[in-house]
Structure formats: structure tokens, C-alpha cells
């Protein structure tokens, strides 16, 4: 079992420290995207080196999540959180003073490693600090914090870039995490009592495999999906991950205990953020370019419209947590949230360049509500199925699925969108510009029409993926017909008392 929290532990301050860090880490994703034009102009760079300001962070963030989660169980969750936050702050500060694009990209890669440590250990800290209804509320707050960071990142970055320059964006991220670190002394240390040595071979194989897979996905649009490098990276990535699974099955002290993923309900809950990536994160990434490019809205106006989708992400998690604590099954809320993704994306096909805000308000609210209901509740449900000594490992795997899917799905989504636009405007180069919001080329009206048609097809495809995911996850979360141990088989929310694994 996990080491008992120390007497100096203060749960309220522990929650505040973790929440502040969880606001900042996703803010560094969405906020950095807004800073890219200013970075390119100031450092005289463009293309792949500039795009790696985003890619370097995403690749290391996804690749190191499982490693830092398992390390947290061995060396201590608070220690791993502090180390991750420290690396994140150092990387962000280095990015703020970077003299050139190469240093900036390296600093962002370092920040991604730190972000993995924060995310993997932060959830484990809450899982071992809180029990029962308090744990549900804590994870609901965690969902709101992550949603706030993702939603507020572009707005804050836009203001900072306009007022102080792009370097202030990364300076703010370093400052926020430094404030969180100031309260680390109030966080109790916990770790697994049995602490074998870290499976270094497994860690290297996993980081290399997932890194190659994510790298292949994010470089696909840049190099071309048919170029030799992209398939090679994807094959190498998949091959190394297969080797990793074989190594873990034979290891006495695995980096990932395969019994976790053999639990169909835990695995189903880990798939919830993957469906959320399809249904919500893709829209958060590509809808602004449509609103600005095809609909002709100003960036500020487009941001205001997106509040219809992002505001529920901030408000719904506490509501969902309260419903679970009042006896509403968590699996019901999760199923409803995923169904809202499917319905919202299908409904959003009403969007056209001339569509009013009122016409798209309904689907945007549905998608945002779906994200808000699943954020936090799904994570809390997954963690309640895991004994405390594996909390870091479980959180690391859960967030690997979340961040890894975001990097891969967003890249594939964009590639499909560009390909569909290309068939309508007759040029791959023009299609790439259109997907990025530049509709100045081609025949009058053709780029906007092509963008709209392509977006509709992608939205219907996304809705279908979300619908299939809803059915599959709901079936996996269904209560077993024969339960030998109610406490060990109930998803949180099956009853008001079933919030912790016995």
C-alpha cells in the first residue's frame, strides 16, 4: 500500500498547488500557438523550425508521461511533481530568453518533459490524498483547471503578445508554476512501499516507440504522408511499442503493469480522453481558422464565439462531480458526454460562411457540455479502480492516452481536412493555406466553399467515430452480471459509497 500522508499535509493547499500547475501545463499548449507568428517575425524563422515550438513540447510531453508516472510510485509523487514543475519552469524561462529558434525548440522539449512529470504525479497525488466524495470533487476541480488552461491560453497569450511580446507568454508560464512550487511543502509525500528499480530498458523502448509514432504523425503534413520518412517512423514506433509490451509481460518490475490494461473498465475509462480528442480538441484546433478565414470574423470575435464551447468545460465538471456524489452513476454521465460529442459534431454541419452565431450555438454548447461532463469524472473513476501503490503508473498511462491521442489525432485530422479541400480547389498548396485560414487564392468563393464541404465531411466522420466510441465504452463500463466483489468491480457512481477500490 502507499505510504500514509504526513501530518503536515494540508489537503486544501495540496489541491491548490496541483490545480495551479494543471492550469498552466495545457495553457502552454494553446497559448504557444498564438505566439507563433510573433516568434517567427522576431527570430526570422518559418516552416518546420517554427512549428517545432509546438511539436517539441507535444512529443516529449506524450512520450515521458508513463515513465514519470511509474517513477512517481517509486521515488515519491511529491518529489516527481516538484522535479517536473521545476523542469517546466526552467524550460519556460529558457524559452522566454531564447536567442534563436534552436534554443527555443530545445527549451520547449524540456518543458514537455517537465509537464509530463506534473500531469502524471499530480493526479496520483490527489488520488492518494482524497477519498470518497472528496476525491470526486477534487478530480472535478482538476477537470475544470485543465479546461481553464486550455481555454484561457489563447486569450492570455494574445493579450501578452500584443502588449509585451511573445516572450512574456513563456515568462507567465514559468511564473505560475513557480508559485505552485512555493506550496509544495504542504503536499504529503507518498510512494509504493515496494520500490523496485526503474525498468530503464522498458522506459527507453517506450519513449523511443511513442516518440517515433507521434513524430511520424506530426511530421506527416510537413513531409508528406507518402514520403519514406513518415511510414518508416510509424512502423518503427508501432514495432517498438510491441517490443515494449513483450518486455513488460516478462519483467518482474514492469514500467506498466499489464494487468491494468487487462481491466476492461479501466481501459475503457482511459479511452474516454481519446474520444474527447476527436469530439472536442479537434474543433478547438481547427474551428477558429474556419471562423476567421471562411466566416470573416475577427480573431477577437471568433474567440468570443468559441466561449460557447469552452465555457461549459469550466462550469460542468463541478456539476458532474456533484451528481456522482448524489448517486448518479459515473458511467451514465460519461456515456452521455460522449454521445454529446457525436450529436454536437453532426449538428455542427449547419455551419456555413454566412451562418449566424445563433445557428451554431446549439452544437457548440453540446460539444462543450460533453467535454465538461467527462473532464475530471472520467479520471476520478479510473483512479478509483487502482490501488494506491500504482496510482502514478495509472495516471501516467491515462494521460499518455490523452496527450498521445491529441498529437496524433490532430495531425491526422488536419491531413484529412487538407486532402478533402485539395480535391475541391485543385491544389494541395492552396488547400494547406485554406486550412490555415488563408482564403485569398483561387476562384472567388471557391476556397470558402471547399473549406465548408471538407469540414462537413470531417464533422460527420468525427461524429461517427464518437458514436462508435460511445457504444464501445458504455458496453465496457457495464456492470458485470456476476460480481464476486462489489467494491472491486463497481465503477464510481454505481452507488454513493462506491468511490474507492477496497
From TrEMBL:
Residue ranges of the TM segments: 51-69, 81-103, 109-127, 139-162, 168-188, 200-219, 225-246, 266-287, 302-320, 332-351, 357-382, 403-421, 457-478
Organism domain of life: Bacteria
Subcellular location: Cell membrane
Major facilitator superfamily (MFS) profile domain boundaries: 14-481
Membrane topology (UniProt): Multi-pass membrane protein
Pfam families according to UniProt: MFS_1
Alphabetical keyword list: Membrane, Transmembrane, Transmembrane helix
PANTHER family: EXPORT PROTEIN, MAJOR FACILITATOR SUPERFAMILY MULTIDRUG TRANSPORTER MFSC
Name of the protein in question: MFS family permease
Native species: Nonomuraea roseoviolacea subsp. carminata
Amino acid at each position: 500500500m502507499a505510504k500514509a500522508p504526513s501530518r503536515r499535509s494540508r489537503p486544501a493547499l495540496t489541491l491548490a498547488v496541483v490545480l495551479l500547475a494543471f492550469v498552466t501545463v495545457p495553457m502552454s499548449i494553446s497559448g504557444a500557438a498564438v505566439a507563433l507568428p510573433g516568434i517567427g517575425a522576431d527570430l526570422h524563422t518559418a516552416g518546420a523550425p517554427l512549428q517545432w515550438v509546438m511539436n517539441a513540447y507535444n512529443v516529449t510531453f506524450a512520450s515521458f508521461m508513463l515513465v514519470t508516472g511509474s517513477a512517481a510510485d517509486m521515488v515519491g509523487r511529491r518529489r516527481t511533481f516538484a522535479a517536473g514543475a521545476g523542469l517546466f519552469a526552467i524550460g519556460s524561462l529558457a524559452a522566454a530568453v531564447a536567442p534563436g529558434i534552436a534554443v527555443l525548440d530545445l527549451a520547449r522539449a524540456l518543458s514537455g518533459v517537465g509537464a509530463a512529470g506534473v500531469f502524471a504525479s499530480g493526479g496520483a497525488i490527489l488520488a492518494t490524498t482524497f477519498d470518497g466524495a472528496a476525491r470526486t470533487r477534487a478530480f472535478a476541480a482538476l477537470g475544470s483547471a485543465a479546461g481553464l488552461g486550455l481555454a484561457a491560453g489563447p486569450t492570455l497569450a494574445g493579450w501578452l503578445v500584443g502588449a509585451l511580446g511573445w516572450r512574456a507568454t513563456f515568462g507567465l508560464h514559468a511564473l505560475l508554476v513557480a508559485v505552485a512550487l512555493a506550496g509544495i511543502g504542504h503536499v504529503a509525500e507518498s510512494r509504493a512501499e515496494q520500490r523496485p528499480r526503474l525498468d530503464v530498458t522498458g522506459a527507453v523502448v517506450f519513449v523511443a516507440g511513442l516518440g517515433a509514432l507521434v513524430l511520424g504523425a506530426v511530421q506527416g503534413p510537413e513531409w508528406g504522408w507518402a514520403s519514406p520518412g513518415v511510414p518508416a517512423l510509424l512502423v518503427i514506433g508501432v514495432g517498438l511499442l510491441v517490443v515494449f509490451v513483450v518486455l513488460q509481460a516478462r519483467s518482474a518490475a514492469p514500467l506498466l503493469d499489464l494487468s491494468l490494461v487487462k481491466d476492461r473498465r479501466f481501459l475503457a475509462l482511459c479511452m474516454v480522453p481519446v474520444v474527447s480528442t476527436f469530439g472536442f480538441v479537434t474543433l478547438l484546433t481547427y474551428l477558429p481558422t474556419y471562423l476567421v478565414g471562411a466566416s470573416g470574423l475577427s480573431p477577437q470575435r471568433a474567440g468570443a464565439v468559441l466561449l460557447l464551447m469552452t465555457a461549459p468545460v469550466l462550469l460542468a465538471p463541478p456539476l458532474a462531480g456533484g451528481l456522482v456524489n448524489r448517486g448518479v452513476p459515473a458511467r451514465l454521465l460519461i456515456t452521455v458526454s460522449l454521445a454529446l460529442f457525436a450529436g454536437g459534431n453532426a449538428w455542427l454541419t449547419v455551419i456555413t460562411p454566412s451562418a449566424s452565431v445563433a445557428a451554431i450555438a446549439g452544437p457548440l454548447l453540446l460539444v462543450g457540455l460533453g467535454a465538461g461532463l467527462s473532464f475530471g469524472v472520467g479520471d476520478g473513476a479510473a483512479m478509483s479502480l487502482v490501488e494506491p501503490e500504482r496510482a502514478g503508473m495509472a495516471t501516467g498511462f491515462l494521460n499518455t492516452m490523452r496527450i498521445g491521442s491529441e498529437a496524433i489525432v490532430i495531425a491526422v485530422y488536419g491531413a484529412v481536412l487538407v486532402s478533402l479541400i485539395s480535391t475541391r480547389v485543385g491544389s494541395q498548396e492552396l488547400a494547406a493555406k485554406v486550412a490555415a485560414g488563408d482564403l485569398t487564392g483561387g476562384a472567388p468563393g471557391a476556397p470558402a466553399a471547399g473549406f465548408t464541404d471538407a469540414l462537413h465531411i470531417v464533422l460527420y466522420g468525427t461524429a461517427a467515430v464518437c458514436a462508435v466510441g460511445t457504444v464501445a465504452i458504455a458496453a465496457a463500463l457495464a456492470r458485470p452480471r456476476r460480481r464476486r466483489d462489489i467494491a472491486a468491480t463497481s465503477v464510481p457512481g454505481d452507488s454513493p459509497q462506491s468511490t474507492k477500490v477496497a
